[in-house]
Amino acid sequence: MTAPIKHLLDIVAKEVEGLKVPVVDLIAVQTKDPFKVLVATILSARTKDETTAQAAERLFKHAPDQQGLAHLSEEKIAKLIYPVGFYRNKAKYLIKLPNVLEAFGNRVPDTVEQLVTLPGVGRKTANLVVSVAFHKPAICVDTHVHRIMNIWGYVKTKDPLQTEMALRKKLPKKYWIKVNSLLVAYGQAICRPVAPHCDRCALNEVCPQIGVTPRKIPKKIPAKGKNNKKFISWNVNGIRAMEKKGFVDMIQEFDADIIAIQETKAHPDQLSDSLKNIPGYTSYWHSAEKKGYSGVAIYSRLTPLSISFGLNEPAFDKEGRIQTLEFPDFFFINIYFPNAGHGLKRLDYKIQFNKAVQDHAQKLATQKSVVICGDYNVAHKPIDLKNPKENESNAGYTLQERKWMDTFLDNGFLDTFRLFNTEAGHYTWWSYRYNARARDIGWRIDYFCVDKNSPSRVADASILKTVMGSDHCPVQLDFFVDKISS
Ligand code: SF4
Question: Please, is 37 exposed, middle or buried when counting C-beta atoms within 10 Å of its C-beta (0-12, 13-18, 19+)?
Answer without folding.
Answer: buried
